[in-house]
Amino acid sequence: MNDSLSSMIVPGVLWGLVLFSVVSWAILLVKSAQYLRQKAQNKQFTKAFWSAPDLLTAAEHASQYPGSLARIASSGFEALLVEDSPRTTQQLAHTINRSDRLERNLRQQIQKERRSLENGQAILASIGSTAPFIGLFGTVWGIMEALQSIGETGSASLEAVAGPIGHALIATGVGIAVAVPAVLIYNFFLRRLKLASADMDDFAHDFDALASRSAFSISRQAIASKNTNAVREAS
């Protein structure tokens, strides 16, 4: 049983490292597609948003376009909406100043978008930090087996020592080969995350400046009326 388990340790380590490598490259493909899609969506939305003639049209665009900036804008417009009918019940959400509510909504939505972009980052960091040690474990185990075999046979020639130990060192080499791309991919997407976060913060700041011009309020009735007129014009 022990001999069978011992013979499976090094191959198991190597296959585990191969699995880590596959996961790293899969995350690279998935995250690259995510960032490219988000970049295209945000480009379309910002073009429509900043070309809008007024804030009501911009609100309409925010509900129609996908992407992180569109969702941030939608959360901001939710904070600016004014109730057209008097409230019969007091709600804590409405006791907050609209300016503060806008800042809170924008900040919370940015955090949600950041968490979405951070998916997979922890896996890459874990692979990059643990793969060399996993490979070293396989090497140590392989060397231990080689020394035990040499002790049993009593042969200490160069051929008897170099072959098994050289084979055991493969695990360390594979571990390093897996860790280096994982770390590079992690750093690449960490940089992309910082740039995306900066773009979202800049947009939120500009949105706050626009909202201040409308006294941090827009009417649901005005939006509904504008949407109705747009439907009539289209028909």
Automatic annotation (TrEMBL):
Keyword Transmembrane annotated:
yes
User: Membrane topology per the record?
Assistant: Multi-pass membrane protein
Which species is this record about? Pseudomonas hamedanensis
- Extract one GO BP annotation from the record: protein import
Source species, domain of life: Bacteria
GO cellular-component terms in the record? Answer: plasma membrane
PANTHER family, per database record: PROTEIN TOLQ (PTHR30625), TOL-PAL SYSTEM PROTEIN TOLQ (PTHR30625:SF3)
| The entry's keywords | Cell membrane, Membrane, Protein transport, Transmembrane, Transmembrane helix, Transport
Protein name, as recorded: MotA/TolQ/ExbB proton channel family protein
Query: Where, subcellularly, is it found?
Result: Cell membrane; Membrane
